Amino acid sequence: MSWTLLRGTFTQRRTSILxxxxxxxxxxxxxxxxxxxxxxxxxxxxxxxxxxxxxALFGGTExxxxxxxxxxxxxxxxxxxxxxxxxxxxxxxxxAFAGEIGAGTMEFVLAQPISRVxxxxxxxxxxxxxIVVLAAASxxxxxxxxxxxxxxxxxxxxxxxxxxxxMFMFAVGGFxxxxxxxxxxxxxxxxxxxxxxGTFWIADLVSNVSEAAEVIDPINIVTYWQPGxxxxxxxxxxxxxxxxGVIGVVSLIASVLVFxxxxxx
Amino acid sequence: xxxxxxxxxxxxxxxxRGVESLSMSVPAGSVYGFLGPNGxxxxxxxxxxxxxxxxxxxxxEVLGERITLDGAxxxxxxxxxxxxxxxxxxxxxxxxxxxxxxxxxxxxxxxxELLERFDFDPGRKVKELSKGNKQKLALILxxxxxxxxxxxxxxxxxxxxxxxEAVYAVIDERVAAGRTVFLSSHxxxxxxxxxxxxxxxxxxxxxxxxxxxxxxxxxxxxxxVTFARPVQPALLDDVIGVDSVMxxxxxxxxxxxxxxxxxxVIKRLASxxxxxxxxxxxSLEDVFLEFYRHTDADDEPRAVAGREEA
Lengths: 265, 310
What we know:
The structure holds two protein chains of two kinds. Chain A is mainly α. Helix content of chain A is 75%, strand content 0%. Chain A has helices spanning 3-12, 14-38, 40-48, 52-57, 68-77, 80-103, 105-109, 116-145, 155-182, 186-209, 227-231, 238-261. In chain A, helix 2 (14-38) packs parallel to helix 8 (116-145). Chain B folds into two domains: 2-216, Rossmann fold, CATH 3.40.50; 220-281, ACT domain (Alpha-Beta Plaits, 2-Layer Sandwich). In chain B, the strands form three sheets. In chain B, strands 6-7-8-3-9-10 form a six-stranded mixed beta sheet, with helices on both faces. A four-stranded antiparallel beta sheet of chain B has the order 2-1-4-5, with helices on one face. Chains A and B meet through helix 1, helix 7 and helix 8 of A and helix 2 and helix 3 of B.
């Protein structure tokens, strides 16, 4: 790994990292603050009057919507949070390889004495650090501000939620980085990842109301994203951890191997 | 000893030819000019040498090492200035100098001197720099570590004549210090000024390799003379090395002059009264068409250098 490249990567992306982190902190705090006002009984009444198709739109039907976990999954983590972190990771990963090639700066960096493998591994490490930063910005405010608003996450629940969030982002970020290693235009790499994520989201939506789309469920990373269960103290499907882990690991290794052999100018 | 050797180096982008069957060698301690029009394959060749592009066929050695896509150790010994300068727009020149120093394990020995010689302010962001100043920064970044081999892709593009001369002076000094320079250019006069040997590339293929003195003999000049009073249209007809003579009216004449014929032409013109005289160097493409024509039959490059008509 190259410390120079790692420092450089975060310096170049500092504005984007700052904005996404501040936005997530603010959003998480906002949703925590809202809970006593719309959570509990009133929220349960509201949910009961909604058609099941609409409930499905906000993150599946595996969590009881009237619970704390149901509230967070429906109002935040099941849709908006996914959109925010996916866009953050797609932009970050898109610039890691394809963006640098498209902008011509890859030629400048690779004229320096740094091997491609070292370059790629450093970009993988940068992505992993960014995932942890995004997870911290997302979940620490809930744990930190929660007690003031009748939300008390145990250390175990918080740790599990944090780790599960990291694993989801690991899969999305890994796939984004793989696309970035395949193309020479960060926009195209990002568009493909966004398209795949959109397809998964639609498939998850449809599978909630129709069996036709259930065929994608075993690999649908959106379907496996059930943070509400963890918040409620329940367990998510064990295969969710595996699917996220396998997609992330395979994608990141593949991205390093692809980058090692490709034309970079 | 040769610093760069290519053997049948070929790079295709799909069906598009970048460079094909390029075999050449660059001797140590020389300034080798890689001359060709835009799109000839100069940059493709350089990117293959630096391991940024994977050759479709053939191979090459640089500083005694076979080129690979992962040659970090080799690139430590090379300084590279890209033809199209692409740096991080939101960062300063100082940040770029620190960045390169981080990769290379310390500041360049020539950094301070080059900053002063090019009169460059490293405190400004790249997006605030003019094209010429970006080029200066790229040159400083590429040359500051006093590399054994300098690969310069059209290094004076965007520079004013004063800074062009500063670049040429640095090149002269580095070569005097035992370094080797590989310089690509589409400007004939630039190659003539700094290079000792020249490889001429056209349409992805090496058309000829020559000493720069030989190249000087292939200069083409376009002459336009306005006479003070009418002269004989055949005034230059018997001067060796003059062709395409055109008489415009009674007092104006244009002609193309090859190589050293300029001396004889000036002496002939001295015999008549002239009111205006204009001499310009022909374009590189004209020189190619005159001396390095292809034969369509076998599509092989054929240098017809030395065919210079008497």
